[in-house]
Amino acid sequence: MREDINIDEVFSAADTGCVYDRVISGTEKLLIEKALKRAFGNQSIAAKLLGINRNTLRLKIRKLGIDVKKYRI
Questions:
Q1: Residue 42 placed within a domain
Q2: What is the CATH classification number for the domain harbouring 58?
Q3: CA gap 37, 8 in Å, rounded
Q4: Looking at 6-15, 18-27, 64-73, which range is the least confident one?
Q5: Is the pLDDT of residue 56 over 90?
Q6: Domain-embedded: residue 2
Q7: What is the pLDDT of residues 32-55, one digit of tens each?
């Protein structure tokens, strides 16, 4: 799991107009992965930790390609 997003690196490698999307998606993925790890892969608990709807979390997991199985015990 990636621990941080290097914004300077994103700026230097990014095409014009996509910096925001890259930083947000990278940060969002990291945040969701940390919540899933803390919730031992339980999506309902992770959604509560994040303060979002469970279905929203599931859509984001699918969109970001997160493997939930690796967080389950």
A1: yes
A2: 1.10.10.60
A3: 27
A4: 6-15
A5: yes
A6: no
A7: 999 999 999 999 999 999 999 999
Between residues 23 and 63, the one the model is more confident about: 63
Amino acid sitting at position 3: E
Domain-embedded: residue 1:
no
Query: What token pair was written down for 37?
Result: 């790890």
CA distance linking residue 3 with residue 5, whole number of Å: 7
Q: At what angle do helices 43-50 and 19-38 cross, to 10 degrees?
A: 120
Token pair of 26 as six digits: 């990278």
3-state secondary structure 27-64: HHHHHHHHHHHHCCCCHHHHHHHHCCCHHHHHHHHHHH
- pTM of structure: 0.78
CB 27 within 8 A of CB 5: yes
